[in-house]
Amino acid sequence: MVKKLHIKKGDMVKVISGEDKGFQGKVLEILPKKYKAIVEGANIVSKHTKPNANNTEGGIVKQEAPIHLSNLMLIDPKEGTPTRIGRKADKNGKLVRFAKKSGEEIK
To answer: What is the pTM of this model?
Structure first.
């Protein structure tokens, strides 16, 4: 069973622990089964690749590695600071995410 995630693809997040602590970036991909996310520019690793159609020379490629979701906080769209996330029903009865700091609804 996969838990309900507080972060979605396209969200701006801040890394709150680990080597890239304090880094802010956009979420490129979510890996729900592993409970991880790939953040643009964070957790850069060197990957050794063989020559292929895309990279004819091969060699060492720098790329983003997944970060555990517990190490990420969503950036409040109103204040621009990290915030916790809540869920509440909107006018139509559909659950929407909101920032606990400002009360702003997150699209």
So the answer is: 0.84
